[in-house]
Design a protein that fits this description.
Two copies of one chain form a homodimer. By secondary structure, chain A is α/β, with parallel strands linked by helices. The first copy, chain A, has helices at about 40-45, 130-135, 140-150, 170-180, 190-200, 215-220, 235-240, 265-270, 280-295, 310-315, and strands at about 1-10, 10-15, 25-35, 60-70, 80-85, 85, 100, 115-120, 120-125, 160, 185-190, 205, 225-230, 245-250, 275, 300-305, 325-330. In chain A, the strands form four sheets. In chain A, strands 3, 4, 5, 8, 9, 16 and 17 form a seven-stranded mixed sheet that branches. In chain A, a hairpin with a 2-residue loop joins strand 1 and strand 2. In chain A, helix 3 packs across helix 4. The radius of gyration of chain A is 20 Å and the shape is globular. The first copy, chain A, starts with a strand and ends with a strand.
């Protein structure tokens, strides 16, 4: 079968690999679609811990179960499934174990024609989604779901700010918060993304390139109960200024680096939370899929291209111009 | 009656005041003991917002109910009570309202022979405590209780680090965490305080004056689930290094100022919480008093002096040499 692997630092190639053999509780999935995450490009660029060569990359995937190893899994055969990319979350629902990893290095991932997966990690594709749409869900959807609900505790009627709208996780955080009945605001540096968010139901959209943009939402909207962020940097102190008392700032990345200070005074007097978050546990993955089905969430797709062109997808994911997920189909 | 007021910026004096008159649901309390908080000295030094002159200072007090305004409050008469120093917490248990203030400016406080208080803010003195001991509880105990249990969610068996042991709140956080069955560690810059903590049951005590002190607890104790801190500053990044995944850093002050950076990367990967906290709601005050009664917590008292010498108590509270609360008796 064909599969995409890192053959040397910085070099990804589609190579011929042996089709995986399944045993025990595994099922064999023939992939229909897969989606990219920044993680994939970070691995290509050598910006990820414990990089290994010759491992199939890719965390997000949807396909048909074509083979099962035990009779008990017979009902899965022929079904389209979406794969939970968690490996070894562990027994503590609050946080991943030391053995935790994400599908697609060190374990073989979804950028291949076939993948062997434990039966506990597959879920039926939500009925309202195509395989391409469903392939966009796993890593971004799970990360957004935990950030929004486990840590952010977003409730209907709350004011929620999603920074960096258009990013793979941010788009889900935006849609999930909307579906939960919150008043959702976004920031972006690009006007077209702000327009997209407003069209999709944002209560407000702010261009963070404008100096003091944050003073406007504060003055006009009464502040935010929850901010979902992945940029970090000095902006965190602006968020602290525009939080309502008891508010929660949840971040799942720090692409702008570390802040030069932190306004602890405002934080303790207003009882604010600054909460780190990453991924989500297996139960949350199931809840996320159920939530997407129930609320009929449709992932934003930036583009779909054939698997053969996946290298160009890696090039695109590094850019800030995309809005939504980049998908490849087989 | 005699009462301590700020007569000019920086100047506190015991003056003659009219005994308060009670109406409605108020009761009149003849004070037996009161305790100081750093807040009192901050007010004296002009380091507190909205300072007003000629207001009786003092947030912590215990006394006997000598007069009630309604028959329904007759059962309170003759009882020794401890006063909840919250004023107008508001309806949201998570965070205080904008109208919130602390007893003892702008409302008349406990540094006087008599005080008028609403009946909803008095609680019977725990049976195992003297009035001097109980007077040490309110502000420090409430702040510690919320930090430990509402925000810190301390459970038995967890590793808890209390920074700055000996401070008015830290001593309660230490004792509450111990009483909850946690393994409690402390830091202090003074060896005699570390010795006191070890004698009282600390699982470990670290002198933060030693460079890299934090590397030892990390290497030998497996890290902390909860840190309770009021110093802030760059030390926060050391705490982040020694937290277990899913750990919570709760701070109720920032006496060392703001940190020069914040390790967001470790925070999100380990799903750490940095949580601001201040005071606690009225329900928590009641729970704190019940907890103290049930667990037979005895506040650490640094010294007790007559009310007439209260100015010297203000001088002492600013110093780092004290261990426990400074109390005045009437």
């Amino acid at each position: 079968m064909k599969g995409l692997v890192l053959t040397a630092p910085g070099r990804i190639e589609i190579v011929d690999l042996e089709r995986p053999k399944i045993t025990g509780s595994q099922v064999l999935i023939k992939l229909k679609a897969a989606a990219l995450n920044k993680r994939d490009q970070f691995i290509r660029e050598g910006k990820y811990p414990n990089i290994q060569m010759n491992c199939v990359l890719g965390s997000d995937g949807v396909g048909e179960v074509v083979e099962v190893a035990t009779e008990a899994n017979g009902t899965w055969k022929g079904k389209n499934v979406v794969i939970n990319p968690n490996m070894n979350w562990g027994s503590n629902p609050a946080v991943q174990s030391r053995e935790y990893s994400i599908l697609g290095m060190p374990s073989h991932g979804t950028f291949a024609e076939y993948i062997a997966v434990e039966d506990g990690r597959i879920h039926e594709v939500p009925k309202h989604l195509t395989p391409e749409q469903a392939a966009a869900l796993p890593l971004g959807g799970l990360t957004a779901f935990r950030a929004c609900f486990h840590h952010g505790r977003i409730r209907g009627g709350e004011n929620v700010l999603i920074s960096g709208f258009g990013g793979g996780v941010a788009q889900f955080a935006f849609q999930f918060a909307l579906a939960a009945g919150a008043n959702v605001f976004v920031t972006s540096g690009k006007q077209d993304k702000l327009d997209t968010a407003l069209k999709m139901g944002a209560a407000g959209a702010f261009n963070y390139v404008e100096k003091d943009w944050y003073k406007n939402p504060w003055q006009t909207k009464g502040g935010f109960d929850v901010v979902i962020d992945s940029a970090g940097g000095d902006q965190i102190n602006n968020f602290i200024k525009i939080m309502r008392p008891g508010g929660r700032i949840v971040f799942y990345g720090a692409t702008n680096g570390l802040p030069g200070s932190l306004d602890l005074y405002r934080m303790f007097w207003n009882q604010l939370t600054l909460q780190g978050s990453t991924m989500g546990n297996d139960e949350e993955f199931k809840e996320m899929i159920d939530f997407v089905s129930e609320k009929k969430v449709e992932p934003l797709i930036d583009s779909v291209r054939p698997f053969e062109d996946i290298t160009s997808a890696f090039d695109t994911i590094a850019k800030t111009t995309k809005t939504g997920k980049i998908v490849v189909k087989f």
